[in-house]
Amino acid sequence: MAEAHQAVGFVPSLTSDGAAVALRGPVLQDIYLSGLRSWRRHLSRLWNDLLSGVLPASPLSWLFLFSAIQLACFLQLDPSLGLMEKIKELLPDCGGQHHRIRGLVAAALFALCLWGALIFTLHVALRLLLSYHGWLLEPHGTMSSATKTWLALVRIFSGRRPMLFSYQRALPRQPVPSVQDTVRKYLESVRPVLSDEDFNWTAGLAQEFLKLQAPLLQWYLRLKSWWAANYVSDWWEEFVYLRSRNPLMVNSNYYLMDFLYVTPTPLQAARAGNAIHALLLYRHQLKRQEISPTLLMGMRPLCSAQYERIFNTTRVPGLQKGETHSLSPQWDIHRQHCGSTGGSSGARLLGLKPFCWLDKSFTLIIFSNAKLGLSVEHSWADCPISGHMWEFTLATECFQLGYSADGHCKGHPEPALPQPQRLHWDLPDQMRQSISLALRGAKTLSGNIDCHVFPFSHFGKSFIKHCCLSSDSFIQMALQLACFRDRGQFCLTYESAMTRLFLEGRTETVRSCTREACNFVRAMADKEKTNLCLGAWTPCTCSPSQPYEILWKDLGLLDSPGTHLVLPWCVPRGKCLRFLGLSPGPVTAGVQDPQCLALFRAAVDKHQALLKAALSGQGVDRHLFALYIVSQFLDMQSPFLAQVYSEQWQLSTSQIPVQQMHLFDVHNYPDYVSSGGGFGPADDHGYGVSYIFMGDDAITFHISSKKSSTKTDSHRLGQHIEEALLDVASLFQAGQHLQRRFRGSGDEDSGHRHGFRSSKTVQSKTPSASEPIP
Fold first, then answer.
1. pLDDT tens column, 289-341
2. Do 70 and 3 share a structural domain?
3. 378 among known catalytic residues
4. What string of DSSP letters covers 264-331?
5. Annotated catalytic residue: which of 5, 334, 378, 452?
6. In total, how many domains does the chain have?
7. CATH of the domain at 506
């Protein structure tokens, strides 16, 4: 989500004196340390593997194997072909009376070795299976025989009930793309936003890079990909997040919001109690690995490593990574001197008005009107992980725990527990001054953000599926159209995609502003300017053409007699229009719609290809990022890489996935839908746009920009997004009535269109705890 800002902001930190000295050490040493950290994590997860059943078998399977060997020995059979006798000979001889015990130990050791060999074989087989990405390239809604066979084998080798971390040892490592392919894709992505002169200059730098620096840099990356768990993720976390000196607020942290339309209780303390209870229930399930692993498209498991750091994680500023006035490492010193009176140290974790640090893994915020919010620190994980926890929290605290008729938490208070106490902070004067400065800076940052949140309720995912299109690609192309109408030009666009198909994968960038998208947007702009007048026509004696009559009705292009008529390309100009029932006179026809539709489909197909490439580890930006990091280690100057990281993302976008729809009953409780979340803009003159599909018939958008910019306006872009979505929908038969309804509504529902309706507190409609969880 917010990594677009950090992705372009990390370069100054690398060129500062402190960071530059740290990076000019031996690159092999850093690669060695990366691998060492990977192997340590690998060993530390051994206990998790035992708990999760040592995929795809369990410790009980060893007991079954040992029992089978004992049964074979009882039947005077030797399944070990003499190996157990060899093992028995190696065991110490403790006397004849222990002969039977030696036999049991030898059988147990043989069973353990055989069991381990089988587990290793199954792991290797599953890893090879999970390295197959052909299913990504198949058309949406279809599945080849090869993919069906692959899916069946994956399910067989996955065991019956895989737990959260069951797949970790079987996930393949993220591949290093070909540097030639990466440079080619990069040049293709920037062509729409560069002039001919600038593009030729950039292409020249790219060719020089391929000849001079690329081979050596690529060699180091391939070495790291074989030694470490992931060739880019640890560098991404360190240099994009942890070395950044920008304030976490707006620049890095992202937020998640409460239910869009309702608040289940008006009591702040009650909401806090249930929310914390729900979070602890989630933590309990996480500790026991009872959370099901996420499967992409219901088939392919994703990496679960980021779940390990949801709780008990904080970002600690250090003194060795540079200094900046906006986020000073004095903070770490002040924290050590910060104490409180009137409560135990453990009580500092909870409070309705906490002394809040934004470097925690997440900060739960309970407002005075009992609305919930979540501020998430970005370095430890990405939005799908915290979003999964947030979905569980909202559903559990509302539907399972519930509230009584007076708004309080259900249940009875425990009399033995001490009463809550207000914490009184004992702060030194230096600390108070630093807090005042930080508060002033935070107010300045937040006051400069123009945040606009609005639900789009004209259609949603069901309509897009009816058009046989990808919902994400549909939105991305509409965003390109809206942004062009807002700015009058195309801009570099950042869309976040995940790489969790691979071990410890995080994110990749989809560059949504493609040549195909620009062609579609230009065609839509031409359509708005150009109309073709067919001239006056007079009745004739020719009979109407039945196929054309059916075509008109199927496309739904007619409003009423006497109005303007939109003719598709397939109807010849000059064709008799008598059968349409129009009186003689001028007929005006826009001639761009079929062309726009064809260009739109081409743009969607291109976006899908880029998205699938990103998912399969063949994206552009993370590879270029890793190449740049190696060049800094080697003190190797590359004008091409410097040019890459001088670019600004004026449109940063991200979709918030809904992963647990079974937790919410959108039919019986349609108002209980999460409004998603958002992040700050990546550029001072840019936009940050996130969106979430709420059920099947609504989409919520979060738009952010800076008030200090004269080029942006979040509400203005929101209006452009709404109009663009309806204009794109009107290219399809099913969407014709949506645009007419919207145009005819005027300003009657402008309050609903330009902002979400005011939140209401609801107790009577809140499901009781006795009802089944939706």
1. 889 999 887 788 999 999 988 988 888 877 655 333 334 337 344 444 454 44
2. no
3. yes
4. S-S-HHHHHHHHHHHHHHHHHHHHTT-SPPPEETTTEE---GGGGGSSS-B----SSS---SSS-THH
5. 378
6. 3
7. 3.30.559.10
